[in-house]
UniProtKB/TrEMBL annotation:
Residues 437-532 are annotated as: Knob domain. The pseudokinase domain, the coiled-coil (CC), and C-terminal knob domain (CK) form a structural unit (PKC) that forms an extensive high-affinity interaction surface for PAN2. GO terms for molecular function: ATP binding; poly(A) binding; protein kinase activity. This is PAN2-PAN3 deadenylation complex subunit PAN3. Belongs to the protein kinase superfamily. PAN3 family. It comes from the Eukaryota.
């Protein structure tokens, strides 16, 4: 079968989907069976000899040039290359295949579209795919590492270690700790289990301290789900369960590692303000809820995205050093001092910077705007009366407005990326309908279903969309053509296309509008059969 001539997608967009007929043909005789197959509302034309491959389709040509590949599609009109490309999905995912349009094809006329236009932005897609891959990571059950871990703890299974440091002795908590991703058998979602090894909880009431933390829902705090004791590891362990953020890292791993030659120490000012604002907001919520963070240190600040930071490991100190909440005011004051120290360390790129404050402040005065130093001085200053995080918030208000503006802009960007995938979702739903209708085996030979009327048209339409071949008989695998056809079908435009029978003996002219009606009637018939 050869592709009938067709109007290019961009031309149709420009013309507002104005209809277009297909080329003339001379008379041709159809078999009686074929005559019966055609619904009455469809025009017929004969003599397929007139039909060459479409010649006005710049869009298709552009798509061919801008060939790309991912695990499910191959976009090419070049049959030679199509034969050389592997067809099966590649494992593991080949991220480098998600390349942006090359310069020589990205400079296209305004009415042309590269394939990237139809899908989520490449970096975002790659990030989401990597995160999804990380969320599904499991240990090979035959490895000694997997065999040394319990197969199930409480309601969690499929433990996967997240901590790659050999030294498990946490400087922060003073006990050996280990961190695992695990799947909850209650909801099938991944969570983080933080195990405090060899810890015996002496007071049952200490467990109640987790309740206040479970109520905290804040974008700057890793949510605490529950805590429990277990002997599943062969010792007395205390386990805290937190939300899981795939591929996250810590401020410590980002900024307190040996620098590349020539790199400047310290966090760039824009990122530093973003961290200050997010942490201030988290502290505000905790302090207003009668809690204290107690873990304001770089290894316990989880970086879960670009400039997104969250307080991690909340609630642990309240349980392992349980005091019934007696000292919370003092701990809140400590939070502010520790926050000031954290800013100094981040700005100087060194954990030791707080030990020589005058020198560090001098460095900060040179490298950052005076506002950074002012916040540090407010947080670190010694006063007889209590300090409040509100004082910090008042001081940094203009920065908060800038941060809110950046967050809104990023939100707009993500929404526009989401909109593209919404369109793709629409196309997938249409494809599902077509898949449900086409060539159902249980209706095989049923004269009321498969080879007659609406279903026959849809079968030919499927060939038109997916099974085209070029002049040499090689398959045309072009997602641009598929999207063009499906979008026109979904819109039900008046444009008419020529469908050809598989034996190439007859052609039918039908509009997308009529095809849409065929889908709707066939699908509702199918739905009636499913739900009599
Ligand atoms: N909630 C979480 N979601 C996803 N990953 C996490 C989460 N919490 C921790 N991690 C991962 O686990 C790793 C280890 O966390 P941990 O808090 O033990 O850091 P650390 O630098 O090893 O600190 P310590 O010195 O206390 O052991 C982190 O680098 C992070 O990648």
């Amino acid at each position: 079968m050869r592709p009938p001539s067709s109007l290019s997608y961009e031309e149709n967009l420009i013309n507002g989907f104005n209809g277009m007929g297909v080329g003339n043909s001379s008379q041709f005789q159809m078999s009686q069976q074929q005559q019966q197959q055609i619904p009455p509302h469809v025009d017929r034309i004969m003599n397929p000899g007139n039909m060459g491959p479409g010649n006005g389709s710049n869009f298709f040509q552009t798509m061919g040039q801008n060939r790309s590949s991912d695990d499910s599609f191959r976009y090419t009109t070049d049959s030679h290359n199509a034969q050389q490309l592997p067809i099966a999905p590649l494992q593991p995912l080949q991220y480098h295949l998600y390349t942006p349009p090359l310069p020589h094809v990205s400079n296209m006329p305004a009415h042309h579209r590269a394939i990237h236009h139809f899908f989520m932005e490449d970096n975002l897609r790659e990030t989401l795919q990597r995160q999804s891959e990380a969320s599904r990571q499991i240990l090979d059950p035959n490895t000694p590492e997997a065999q040394s871990l319990p197969s199930e703890i409480h309601i969690y299974h499929s433990l996967y270690p997240l901590d790659d440091k050999p030294d498990r002795h946490s400087k922060v908590f003073g006990f050996p700790t280990s961190v695992y991703k695990a799947i909850s058998s209650m909801d099938g979602k991944p969570y983080v289990l933080r195990r405090i090894e060899g810890f015996r909880l002496l007071s049952e009431t200490a467990m109640t301290s987790i309740e206040g933390w479970r109520r905290i829902k804040h974008a700057g705090v890793v949510s605490v789900r529950e805590a429990f004791t277990t002997k599943a590891f062969g010792d007395n362990s205390l386990v805290f369960v937190y939300d899981y953020f795939p591929l996250s890292t810590t401020l410590s791993a980002m900024y307190f590692v040996p620098l590349r030659a020539g790199a400047k120490p310290g966090v760039p000012e824009k990122s530093l303000w973003s961290y200050i604002i997010q942490i201030s907001s988290a502290i505000k919520t905790l302090h207003s809820s009668g809690l204290a963070a107690r873990i304001l240190e770089p290894s316990k600040l989880l970086v879960t995205g670009k400039n997104r930071v969250r307080l991690n490991c909340c609630g642990i100190f309240d349980m392992i050093n349980y005091d019934g909440g007696k000292n919370v005011i003092q701990f809140q004051q400590d939070d502010l001092v520790n926050f000031g120290r954290l800013i100094v360390a981040l700005a100087c790129g060194s954990l030791a910077a707080v030990h020589n404050l005058p020198k560090s402040l001098e460095y900060i005065s040179r490298q950052y705007t005076p506002d950074v130093k002012n916040v540090i001085l407010l947080l670190l200053s010694k006063r007889s009366n209590y300090k409040s995080i509100d004082e910090v918030l008042n001081m940094i208000m203009p920065k908060i407005l800038q941060e809110a503006n950046s967050a809104y802009s990023y939100n707009d960007l993500l929404e526009s990326e989401l909109a593209k995938e919404t369109e793709n979702g629409r196309v997938v739903r249409l494809l599902c309908k077509l898949g449900f209708i086409n060539e159902r085996p249980e209706f095989d030979m049923d004269p009321a279903w498969s080879e007659t009327g609406d279903r026959y048209l849809l079968k030919l339409f499927r060939d038109y969309v997916f099974h085209q071949v070029d002049e040499l008989g090689n398959p045309v695998v072009d997602v641009g053509h598929v999207l063009q056809c499906l979008n026109k079908l979904d819109a039900g435009v008046d444009e008419r296309i020529m469908l050809m029978s598989r034996d190439e003996q007859s052609c039918l002219i039908v509009s997308y509008k009529e095809l849409k009606q065929c889908i709707e009637s066939s699908f509702s018939m199918l739905s009636r059969e499913t739900n009599p």
